Amino acid sequence: MRFSSQAKKVTFLLILLSVVLISSLFATLEIPKSDIIFSHKRHSDQPCDNCHNKIYESDKSEDKNLPAMDVCTQCHDGTTLPNECSVCHKDKENPQALVRPKRDFIFSHKKHLERKTDCIFCHGDVTKKDKLTSENMPDMGKCYECHEGTKISNQCELCHAKMRLRKYHPDDWLHSHRYQSITKTEKCVQCHQNQDLCQKCHQGDNLFQKTHPLNYNFTHGLDAKSKEKDCLSCHLTKEFCNDCHSQEGAKPLNHSISDWAGGKHGEFARKDMELCASCHDTADPICTWCHQDKNPGRGNDHDIHPPEFASNLGKGPWHEDDGYLCYECHTKGPKAGVGFCGYCHGDKE
Amino acid sequence: MKRKIILTLVLSLSLWRYGSAVELKSNITTYFNSYQTQDLYTEEKTSYLRAYQSFRFDLNQIGIKNLSVHTYFRSTTDFLNENSTDPSTKVYNAYIDWKNIKKILDLKLGRQFLYVGVGNGTMDGFRFDLKPKVKVQLTGYVGFQLPKNRWTDIDTWDKSHIFGGELATTYLRDTRLAVSYVKKERGTGPEQHLIGANATHQHCKLDFFSQFYYDLVYKKAQNFTLRGNGSSLWGKLYLSAEYQYRRPSIYSNSIFSVFKQDTYSILRFSGAYQPVKNFKFSSEYDLTLYKSGNSTRFRFGIEYAYIALGMYFRRGYGGESNGVYGKLIYTLNKNFAFSASADYGRYKIDEEQESKDDVFALASRVEWEPVRNLRLAVELQDVRNKIRSYDLRLQGKASYRFNIPFSGK
Fold first, then answer.
1. Are residues A128 and A46 located together in one domain of the fold?
2. ipTM of this complex prediction, to 2 decimal places
3. What is the distance between the alpha carbons of residues B191 and A91, in angstroms, rounded to a whole number?
4. Of A312, A314, B161, B231, which one is least surrounded by beta carbons within 10 A?
5. What is the DSSP string of B43-81?
6. CB spacing of B41 vs A248 below 8 angstroms
7. Are A286 and A297 in the same domain?
8. CB pair distance less than 8 Å for A219 and B293
9. Any chain A CB within 8 A of the CB of B75?
10. pLDDT tens for residues B176-205?
11. For the segment B157-180, what is each residue's pLDDT rounded down to a tens digit?
12. What is the count of structural domains for chain A?
């Protein structure tokens, strides 16, 4: 069995893709896990500030508000409660301190507690859980429940004084945000309220190169053919492209090559019909000058319509719409009756 | 249309008296653009000076809690020669938004930007988001499509319409599953009729995304995408890999819908590595595979503190290009920033072209925020290409944003 060079390339690249994904998966397994054994549920008879004893004075997000070992040993003194290493440490031979995640936003527990905010409101009811998860750390949606923008501000700078957008947006954001905005819209709108920001780039005027570089007038053909950008996501290409490309001097160069209207244009068209359609759509149905039905009324021309084309379409708008595109070609035939219906149905009423 | 917008705003503002607290958020931006065009036949040059004025208003808590009005539009004035191809007024959005009704329902009415599964675009219509407490969300929308290049008009149902929706669930932990549907019609019949599904899953530092679109008119798969990316791998590495299968986006009411069309696939890899603070490498590789021929793109860049340098090249169908670029972004303090960029490239967009053309662009920009609510920017652009050996452009921008809380009766 022989494989074409293209099939080999695809296979190779799919293998490479799998390797990247699998290696990334193993990479995540290296995340250090906490050595501490602790159940909030088993300590539910204690008030929160018994262990988090500095919480009422904590004015910064980076404050160490998780209890140090001397807090634990106040109860776990070896007499009232056990104090062996293995009670709290998975690895009793080499006990490790709790790993504290870095915080780089502005937050004051002190101010929130002074306003009588209940711990459970932000952190959920931890007293019912043995092991805490990310659900017990408030995300920005939780903040917005109070910081709704009227009574309490929701300006970004209130919490993110050192905000660096790149940290919140991945490195290939310019490409990948199309997927994030489908599936993580709720995260986008936390900062970019009402999706208005999309329109600034996607329907804006591009004066400051936000969307395309300055010489894009000349080089955009490369992007359009290589599909690096999906032009249709912003531009109604039928109108937008035609504004310039209808001019003689702005015609694609390949239109001047020999045998263009013979066989070459068909090769290009099959490969990349989006480009043809961007100029020659219904406003300029140049195809129909030559691509007439060779056997009018006697069946389908497979060079134009794929097999079973008509039967796949079902009852469509052409039955009622005199301006429908089928009329561009299908106007006459040897057994044709009156009008477009007669093309298929003869003189039947 | 301007009158209608102003009337809507005045009416909305007057409603604040019936609420307990109304907030007006606004961003008003004035910018101007001076540029030159050249006639392809006569080579006659024409200079333009165009001013843009954009307004964004968000009026929150009108009478009813969580009821708000939003609008964003811009108009232009030509001081030197008129540019007729670009509409002078664009109403990007103007809608009423009522959020969190009974804690389960959001409603939107008016011109709004839509991006819901397979459905996207600007719509004049109605949208609801139903969010019962079972980790399920149902979205539905119906309305008129934006009239072609007529940003101040509204179409009729016969001329164009759109409707669709999405059902999504986050029932499985760190996973989102959704199915969506859209039907667009414009004038001469169905434009787009798609059904789609997408799934995302997050596992530690990895994100996975998959998507499948099926065209109900052509009865063929329209798009299949599989993507994975990992952030902060080993603390310093970002990787992404993506495969996409596509059938050309030919609307079903296009004359081209009757011809045979070849599908194509795109493979894309990107990565970034930050060995030490302020120093980063990044790279992207794309391969577009057509049934005959392919197109390859590669970019490599280095960033150090305020400076970014890079190079790129492409080969294959679509032409060739290679070039280098550099950027400098220097923030003097929180109120003052300077940036400059340069890009030099050689390209040809067709195999038949014998030699490559040069393009060069240089831009420098100063941004100043004299007070918290006001931002000023000036950018000078020097653009050189096969048509213009010298083209200097000046852009200016003044953006003023404010919040006005009104207290009602």
1. yes
2. 0.81
3. 64
4. A314
5. --EEEEEEEEEEEEEEEE--SSTTEEEEEEEEEEEEEES
6. yes
7. no
8. no
9. no
10. 999 999 999 887 667 888 999 999 998 878
11. 888 899 999 999 988 888 899 999
12. 4
